[in-house]
Each structure stands twice: as structure tokens, then as C-alpha cells.
Amino acid sequence: MADMLNRLKHVYLNVLCIREIMRNSFKEDYFSCRNAENQHEVQRAEVAIVPDIIFLNRNCDNYLDVTATELLEHREKDEVVKLVSTTSHGTTPLVIACRNGHYDVAEYLIEKCGANVNQPGLVMFDGEMIERAPPLWCAAAAGHLALVKLLVKNGARVNSTTKTHSTPLRAACFDGHFDIVRFLVTHGADIEMANRHGHTSLMIACYKGHIKIVKFLLTLKANVNRKSIKGNTALHDCAESGSLEVVKVLIEHGARMDVDSYGMSPLLTAAVTGHKHIVEYFINMPNLVSRKERIDALELLGATYVDKKRDMMGALECWKQAMDERYRGDPVILKPPPSPVVAAYDFAREITDPDALDGLLNDPDEMRMQALVIRERILGPAHPDTSYYIRYRGAVYADGGMFSRCIELWNYALDMQQSMLEPLDPMTQSSLFSFTELFSFMISRQINTGRRVPPVQREELLRVFKKAVLEVKLGKQMLDKGSARGRDIAYLNRVLVTTLHLASLLTHEMPEEGTAEYQTLHQALYELVQINAKDNNGRNVLHLVFNQRGTVLGAGPKSSTYRFPSPHLIKALIRVGADVTARDATGSTVLHLAAMFYPSPDLVTILLDAGAHIDAVNKMGSTFETLIWSNNTYETLIWNKRLYNSVFPVRYTTLACLAARVVRKTYNIRFVPKHLQAFVQMH
């Protein structure tokens, strides 16, 4: 009886699936051509519909879909194979079945339909889209042992990988599916096969704390000291995640205290993540680490307690223990000579006197500066945590209304990033974007009523803007050398947009012409234009101003005068030489973009007065006039008619433009003098 009810429920779900698919316009062909004479069209529609039925039933009970089998069983073998290889939502029916543990469906697809057991698809795991995931990877990651056995039995490659080179074995190790790990290894899985980051199955098992899998892999002689691309080992991973049990097992199997590409040992890794129990285990192990390493780890752990755990007493205990270690042994290990004081750290000097430590509790702010100084000394400016916690402390100050302290710290972190990281690094992008958000927030509070904040100092805004221009310049140079990755063009676009937002804030109230501030701003804008950086659509800074509707900032000024496209910024860019006739990859000028995205009479007039051609044609054959008439809603037509009439098109149409139109329509461009061809083709 229960089985009958389940099957009725399943049929009902199939009806819902069919209705859902019918709403999809391109799938309606199946239903509309049932009575058609063209059987090929019927077959084509059915091929399209079956993967969707299986996809929409992915969360149903584990037995075979009746509707799908009805569409499959009367087909020729080649046709069925083609059908089950069809992708829907970026994936195949077999991948869906394996991801969701539907053994009966997977078995039917493989044994009755000849589904390719190695054909990958797109799946979601833990909120992340996994590209090119083979069915075996999906079954292993989801913990479906029976499906793993079925796939391997039918020829699935045990060392197949996803787009990021993750193997089924690594997927099973991630979530601790020991039985699957053992089965895959027994059937030839390579325990040393790493993903694109050089991260092995042992490393991920150690990071996730799956002790049983770790011990199993070690019995198979997994390389306990193998390093990833960034130089970290399995011991680094478990020290970072905090698994003491795994740490002990690795040490017993010969794990070494190696350093990664940042010079971080597993001991320092445990200290920077705040795992005191692991730090204590390492420093108490005989002959494992040196005195200096013990001292650095304790001091770094204290800094972590201040900034991450907000435990001042715990930090003080760590620093006292480190100080005792310095003076207790022979010889005494003094702290290195003090570095020059930093204004961002409020000119704090690192404490070298043990008796002065107790006084820190009376001055929490001094204690926070000590944490920043100690971290920078031990980790160095190149380590991401150094600049991260400087920025974190600045954000805390900003939340407390101490904006000048925040700006000083953030500038120090930005200088550090630009000197140590490669151009367009995501951390540098984040710093520039945070500055833009902060300045926008401060300006918005000057405009609106409510919480009052101090006004933005223009010299600080200009200081950051010049650093943003420098980042654009360095990024463009890197792209020109051909050494950039594909994603760096997108990174350059982000930095460009952020830089333009800073410029928009600066140019809203231009300084008086002839002043030092005016000259500095004018020079920085000129340099930005001359860099001639473009996004992946070939759009320069002037294009981007018109292509960004509104603002990319969540807390930006509410006043429309600060939002893109800003007339003040457009005038300033044109004044320093921005070309209003420049074209992007589609042949569109800024006037085309203005017509498409922001048809404002004031902005259009600014462009036309600067030399933009009102009759310029892009690659689609569109002009400013045709674009503003392209939206046929009544309200838009009325607005665009007023816009077109308000700019007096005849005023901006020259005799040369009229002649160019005639020449282009009448004559072959090859007969036009070369120095005139570009002008003619523009019209």
C-alpha cells in the first residue's frame, strides 16, 4: 500500500514537472508538435524534455521516473544514447542522479540507455558551483557508496577530475567518507594526485580533521611532507584548522616543520589562527623548534588574541611567556632593534622591558598598536594577515567615529600592498574600494541629516586617488607585457571604476584654477586619461563613466550630483584630453552610450560641445538618433523627443558630416583618400 502511494505521489510530481517544462517556451515544441507530420521535430522535442524531467525530479524518492522511461523505451539505441548525453542546466541526467543518490535511475541510465559514465556536468555542492564534475566525483562527494561501486563497475575512471583537477578520492576525503576512500584506493585511485593548487587528498583530510582517513592514507605511504603550490604541507593544514589529534599523527609519521612561500611554519600558522593548544604542543616537543621560533609564536599568538579573539588578558599572558623565554635562557635573545616609528601606529614602539607589559592593560589602544607592530615584525609586510589586521583595526576606528585614525591606517596598509603585491591584486582592489565607500559615507553624512561626521579632507581624498591611478597604470603595464591572466582584465575594470568614483567625489567641487590642489588634481586626471586603460569591451574611462548607471557603492551619497554619470567628472576628463570620439569594441562612442543608458540633455550637450559627432554610426549601424528612438514606451518616446529637440541636432551637423554620409553611401571606400577614410566610415 505504501509503495502504491509513493508511486502515485511520483506520478503527480511528474505532472507538475511537465507543467513546469511547458512554461519554458523552447520546450513547448514538444506539446505543439504531437500531431505534426514531422516526426523529427517530435523526436527533437522529446530529446530536450527528458533531461529536464529527471532534473526536476532530482529530489524525489529513489525509484525510476515513469515518464522518462516511457519516452526512452521505444527509441533506437543510438537515439537513446544521444538523449541521455543531452545536457540541461549545464549537466546530464546521470550526473544529477549521482549527485542526489538515485541508484535506480543511475543504473537504468547506464545499463539500459548506455549513458557515458565519464561525461561531466555542472553541480552544486555547499553553495559552490563545481564545473566539469564527473558522475563518480559527484557520487563520492555526496557519500553514495553504492553508486560509486556501480560507476566503477561500469568503467568510470577513478582518477577523473573536475575543472579544478579535484579527483573523486579528494572529494570523498573532504567530507570524511571513509568507505568510499578505501574502495577508490582499492580500485586504483592515485593518493598523490593533487588539484590545481597542488593540494592532495592527505592535505584536505588533515584540514577537515578526518583522523581515520588520515591514518589510512599514511599506511599507504602518502607523502606526509609534500608541498602545495604555495608551499604548505599537511601539517600546515591541520595546524590552521586546529586538529591536535591529526597533528600528533603527522608528527609520528615524520612530518617536518617546513615553511611555506610566506615563510610560515606550522607553528606560526597555529599562532596566527589562534590555536593555543597546538602552539603549546609544538613548543613543548623536544628538539622540534628553536627558542626563537617559540618566542615568535608566542608573541604572534598574543597579537592574534588582541585582534581576533579580543582577549587582552590572554594576549598579555602570551607576551609575558615570550618575554620570559627571551631572558630565561642562555644566551638572552633580545628583540631586534626597533624599526622607525609609524604615524599610522600612533608612533608606538614595541615594548622590550618585561616590567612595562603590565601597564598595557591600562591603555587598550596602546595594546592594539603593539599587536600590529609585533605582527608586522614577525610576518613581514608581504603576508596577507599583516595588512588585513591593519585594515580591520582601521574599520573598528571608523565604526567608533575616529575617521582620521582609520584613514591613516588604511593608507599605510594600501602603501604596503602596492609595494609588496603584484598589480591588481584582489587585496589592493579591496583597499581602494573600501576607501571609496568610506569617503562616500562621510560625504553622505554631510548632505543628509542624522549622525554627524567630520568633513572629508580633500588632500586625503586626492592622496588615495593618486594611488588608485598608480594601480591602474601598473595594471595596464602588466597587461601590455602579456604576463597577465585572463581574469586581470576584469580586475583592471574594477580598479578603473573605483578610480572613477574617487574622481567623481573630487571633481564635484573643483578647486580654484591655478591653485596647487587644482594642478595636482589636473595632473592626476591627465595621467589617468593618458594611461588609456580599457575594459574587456574596449571602453576607456569616458565610456565607463556613461556605462555605470548610478553607483557601485552601497553607502554612496544619495545626492544625484555624486552619481554616475557625473557632469563634473565628464567635463574634467574632457578638459584633460579624453577623446569623445573614441570607440569601443562595438564601434560605439560615448554619445551612443549616453543615448542607451542616460539620455540627459545636459550630458549630451557637454559631449556635443566637446566635438562628439551626432551622426556617428556604430557597427550595428546605429546613431544617437536611432538609439534614443529605439525604446518605444510612451513615456520614453515623449522624453526622448524633448531630448532630441533640445540639443538642436542641426547645430551639430557640419557640411563635412553631410558630405561624409553621401560619400559612404555612394562611393567605394577604397577610392577615398586614406587620411579621410576613418572620418567617412564614422558617419
Commentary on this structure:
By secondary structure, the chain is an all-alpha fold. It has helices at 2-22, 29-32, 39-56, 66-73, 77-84, 93-100, 103-111, 135-142, 145-153, 168-174, 178-186, 201-208, 211-219, 234-241, 244-252, 266-273, 276-284, 291-307, 312-328, 364-379, 384-399, 403-420, 426-447, 458-480, 487-507, 516-531, 541-547, 567-575, 590-597, 601-609, 624-628, 634-646, 655-666, 674-681, and strands at residues 121-125, 128-133. Among the domains are: 1-35; 45-161 and 176-190, Ankyrin repeat-containing domain (Serine Threonine Protein Phosphatase 5, Tetratricopeptide repeat), CATH 1.25.40.20; 191-289, Ankyrin repeat-containing domain (Serine Threonine Protein Phosphatase 5, Tetratricopeptide repeat, Alpha Horseshoe); 580-652, Serine Threonine Protein Phosphatase 5, Tetratricopeptide repeat (Alpha Horseshoe), CATH 1.25.40. The chain contains 34 helices and two strands. The protein has a two-stranded antiparallel ribbon with strand order 1-2. It is flat. 39% of the residues are buried. Mean pLDDT is 84; it is low at 4-45, 62-67 and 554-561.
